[in-house]
Write a structure and sequence with these properties.
This protein is an alpha/beta fold. 64% of the residues lie in helices and 11% in strands. Among the domains are: 163 residues, ABC transporter transmembrane region fold; 235 residues, Rossmann fold (3-Layer(aba) Sandwich), CATH 3.40.50. The chain has a six-stranded mixed beta sheet, sandwiched between helices. A four-stranded antiparallel beta sheet has the order 2-1-4-5, with helices on one face. Helix 9 runs antiparallel to helix 10. The longest helix is centred in the first third of the chain and has 51 residues.
Amino acid sequence: MSTPPPLPVAGPAAVRRAALGLIRADRGAFGGLVLLNCLAAGAGTAGPYLLGRIIDDVRAGTTVAHVDRVALAILCCAVAQLLCARWARLVGHRFGERAAARIRDRFVERALGLPASVVDRVGPGDLTNRGTEDIATVATTLRDAGPEVSVSLAQALFLTGAVWVVAPSLGAVALLALAGVPVAVRWYLRRARTAYLAQGEADSHRAEVFAATAAGARTVEAFGLRDRRVAASERSLAHSHRTRTHTLYLRSVLLPSVDFSYVLPVVAVLLVGGTLHTHGVLSLGAVVTCALYLRQLSAPLEAILLWVEQLQSSGASFARVEGVGGAAAAPVPDTVEPRGEAVELRGVRYAYEGGREVVRGVDLTVRPGERLALVGPSGAGKTTLSKLLAGIDAPHAGSVTVGGAPVTALGPEQLRRHIALVTQEHHVFLGSVRDNLRLAAPDADDARLSAALTAVGAHWADTLPQGLDTELGAAGLRLDGPRAQQLALARVVLADPHTVVLDEATALLDPAAARHTERALAAVLRGRTVIAVAHRLHTAHDADRVAVMEDGRLTEIGPHDELVASGGAYAALWRSWHGRP
């Protein structure tokens, strides 16, 4: 089974723009976060400085009362630092939760805006993995790593600056001793983003393999494909394991290097500072103050570097989440308005990525109000043509128009008013029967909803215990295939487009129910254009015209009786349908 191409990944510039957009959306909280972090860091620098003053004052012969006052000031500064840091973390957590909510909302909006052709191409695994694991990773970082890193970064900057203020010579020594930290971090950062993107892609592929195996479990069992699917699953797991092992290797190099690097400044300052104190250049208090600053520096540096791994993983996840926007359909303004209801195809050609053409030079005009049946053997291109008619896919050559306007130039809402596609794939959304129906007509009253259900033969709705308020889904009533399909058809009736494309829309109904539903639809849709992809040829028998597709081409078109009398491809299909040679 070939691996579907993944969704795009946003580049670093796009990720930075998205991050800045989150900050601008909640700039008040972000500004408060920065201010509180600065206050906490400033209060934290007071303790070592005052302790150094105590040492120098004691050596100069100060009083006990003076030492007590300075010690009380140290205590007050420590309490202020604690309160400001806690408050900063609270503001940071709230900022992170709101930002994560905005990311989720934007992801859902973009996912719903993906063209159906893109969803079919990439499969559910990649999209699901981005919407669950990647968003969860970003949310965790915004909630936990973001506040922690911001507090630690402010502390590190203030402590480093304080060393330079107290003793510039020791500040230079400390800076030189810290040179190993940026080297190790740079080595890690140059490799981390690529490694985490590869890990995310491997996880998506693993999810896709598992989802495809679970969805096709009956097919796997029927054709004896168990060993093949197990082997594919093991390969995907092994690939995922390799990518995770590589990111673990990067961390195993970074963290020990940094642990060693931030001990060096304290040792260097004590050695150099002691020498300078011996020669009378620096006071003992200044040396102790700088050593304490650098000793305190290890805590925020350690916190920052411990979160670097999470930030890189989150950055890769954020790039994958933002990448969905690159695949989403661009909004199409309603600048073109169809004039009339005729549907026309001229020289239409289409090929799936990496494959041969499945629709080859189709010319077809469907008159307003006509019922056209599209028939042909499996693989003839009928379903692809139905997607082109409904504007889901765009032809690679030629044109598909409604009322003279290209369907691809119509916005989603505008297109829905003209053409609707109904396939054998359907979905029952969580909520009541009324909620499911009002997706197509938000303003419809109960009488109209009931009429739509009756039109498609869904008389079972009249017997529901709570009527239209009956909840559907796992926690409520579970509809079987035929009933779910009837619910989908009722939505089409409510949407009221002038052209309906039915791609085996009654495939899940038994013959009697399908016949009844098709007759009901014929009555409801009288005066509208109906293009039906039909495998059951009684649908073709009831149509005004029948179009026959073979190998991507339109080979015959005409009324049922004429095509049967002509003895061509349709006549052969008709005889086969009735069991005659």
